[in-house]
Amino acid sequence: MAHSTLTPVFVGLRTGLHVLFAALLGLVVVRIVVVGAPGSWAQLVLAVVFAGVYVLGAVVARAAESRRALAGAAWVVALTLVWIALLVLVPEAAYLVFPLFFLYLHVLPRSVGPVAVVVATLVAVVALGLHGGFTVGGVVGPLVGAGVALLIGLGYRALAREAVEREALVAELLATRDRLAATEHEQGVLAERARLAREIHDTVAQGLSSIQMLLHAAERADGDRPGLEHIRLARETAADGLADTRRFIRELTPPSLDQGLAAALRRLAEQQWSRDGLTVTVDVPEVALPMDVQTALLRIAQGAVANVVQHAHAADVRLSLTVDGREARLTVADDGVGFDPVTARERAGASDSFGLRATEDRVAQFGGRLEIDSAPGRGTTLVAVLEVS
């Protein structure tokens, strides 16, 4: 039997059955020895055979997994025949009918077991009546024993069914838990991949884009000096990208935020974005925001300015931040050529452009919203509103 919370109950019932059998058979043997009637040796032999059949049948019935029903039925029939033979010689053998009741109910099929209990009860009553006359005790005793055995047997079967159902339910719950854990793991992997994609896009990819533009400018430059200056800037940009990449690997907070978001944006405006020919005005107050919110605002600003550099052909960009209650509002406005936001979103799904989608994902992570006001020929204003917990 598979282990379950009811297994100790079943083990206890079987142990009780064995103890009951041994006690009643011991009583029969003691009666045979004490009385010492003629032919007592035959009675002792039958008692030993009965005990041997019981022990052997219990072992064989448990071992024969593939033919347990057939082996159990053969065991019960043999045990019943030896019991009847012993009952003819020893009237006290009628007491052995009580453990037989439980065997009938446990081993035989559901419809056969109760019938066997009734037949064995009648045999015990008749045997007691033939040996010592029919008395109230001789009739009521086996009948009460049969009733108790039927109740316990039916209760045992109900417990067994409940145990099987409970085991099936537990197995289903465990399988559901495993599937849920696998799904959560997969979602976590996908979310982490999306996060890394955004981080790489907003840092390393932008740095590489700047390097590409600087090297193109170096190729077009006349003379050695201008070309060398562009190459120097390309090298510095590559160094910054390498530092960002190593930082991602270590999973540390961006060092650029050590002194706050405002300082980080001003450094970018002075050291990186000015190289791209932009005049970036940073109007960001020194406010206390959670580090994850500051990181998200920094990356959104980097992505927005990178789009300005690559697509807007703008000269001036203004970054501003306002914090109102539980909302942080970042505005990035440029005087570039503008674009159609609807068309840009449609084209983003069929191209390798990731900037706008990355920004939308970041804003969605904080339960915020992204507003884009742009049109061809009149510049762009991007507003990212994040909820601050």
TrEMBL record:
Keywords: Kinase, Membrane, Transferase, Transmembrane, Transmembrane helix, Two-component regulatory system. CDD domains: HATPase_UhpB-NarQ-NarX-like. SUPFAM superfamilies: ATPase domain of HSP90 chaperone/DNA topoisomerase II/histidine kinase. The keyword rRNA processing does not apply. Residues 195-389 form the Histidine kinase domain. The keyword Kinase applies. The chain crosses the membrane at residues 15-34, 41-61, 73-105, 112-130, 136-156. GO terms for molecular function: phosphorelay sensor kinase activity; protein dimerization activity. PROSITE patterns: HIS_KIN. One of its GO terms (cellular component) is membrane. It comes from the Bacteria. This is Signal transduction histidine kinase.
